[in-house]
Amino acid sequence: MYVPKHFAETRVEVLHGLIRDCPFATVLVNTADGLAANHLPFELVGNALHGHVARGNELARLDGAEVLAVFRGPDGYVSPNWYPTKQETHREVPTWNYAVAHVHGRLKVVEDAAWLRALLERLTDHHEATEPQPWRVGDAPTDHVEKMLHAIVGIEIAIERIEGKFKLSQNHPERNRLGVIAGLRRRDGDGDAELAALMALQEESKA
Question: Is the pTM here over 0.85, yes or no?
Answer without folding.
Answer: yes
